Amino acid sequence: MRSVSVFNTCSIRLIDVGSSLMAASCSLVDPELTIGLPPAVTAATGMDALCHAMEALVTKGASPFTDALALKAIQLLSENLVTAYKDGRNLEARSKVMLASMTAGMAFPNAGLGAVHGLTAPLGGHFGVPHGVASAILLPEVMDFNLADEGAAAKYALAAQVMGCESAVEKVRAMNAEMDVPSLGSFGITEESLEMLASDALGENSNCNSNPRAVSHADAVALLRAGL
């Protein structure tokens, strides 16, 4: 698990933090507690769950076990998240979104994450971008980037099958559009900040290192630019 430990206007230092005491011994999951959650928060948290699943599906640490979990989460989110966003009192949709979040939450700790989570790490510290929003913005851009990797492309084809579409990338873009996910530019991020953000996103502890396709500094800048 990674955590922002020190940050200022110039840089963010990430350190590894881990302990069995950080894991719950029991979790009570009740979708009724999410009734009344603002639509924008529903979108951000739901898309972060989708990001967990999509990244677990293609990351270097993926396995048949995590693939099964990730694909089920992707299916449930593609079928129910937009409904939960538009009708926050739809308990069936919220239940399935919460189940998907839990399922993705079992996939990614065992498989790892990828470039989306690597690139989003400095966005909150420098510009206050909510993590789920940043994940939603960058997910389709990173997926499109990863299509150049044969293995990732094959996994995204499986994702498209369970999502009932031809392109998983375009489905994610459409979900973002339906839920009015903003751009990075709306948080005041400009071209002038991209080099610094890319530098902070990469390094020894970055999730970018687990991405199926290697991410260079220039790649990181280009992916962040696509989210503006």
From TrEMBL:
<feature type="domain" description="Fe-containing alcohol dehydrogenase-like C-terminal">
    <location>
        <begin position="42"/>
        <end position="226"/>
    </location>
</feature>
<dbReference type="InterPro" id="IPR039697">
    <property type="entry name" value="Alcohol_dehydrogenase_Fe"/>
</dbReference>
<dbReference type="InterPro" id="IPR018211">
    <property type="entry name" value="ADH_Fe_CS"/>
</dbReference>
<dbReference type="GO" id="GO:0046872">
    <property type="term" value="F:metal ion binding"/>
</dbReference>
<keyword id="KW-0560">Oxidoreductase</keyword>
<protein>
    <submittedName>
        <fullName>1,3-propanediol dehydrogenase</fullName>
    </submittedName>
</protein>
<dbReference type="Pfam" id="PF25137">
    <property type="entry name" value="ADH_Fe_C"/>
</dbReference>
<dbReference type="InterPro" id="IPR056798">
    <property type="entry name" value="ADH_Fe_C"/>
</dbReference>
<dbReference type="GO" id="GO:0004022">
    <property type="term" value="F:alcohol dehydrogenase (NAD+) activity"/>
</dbReference>
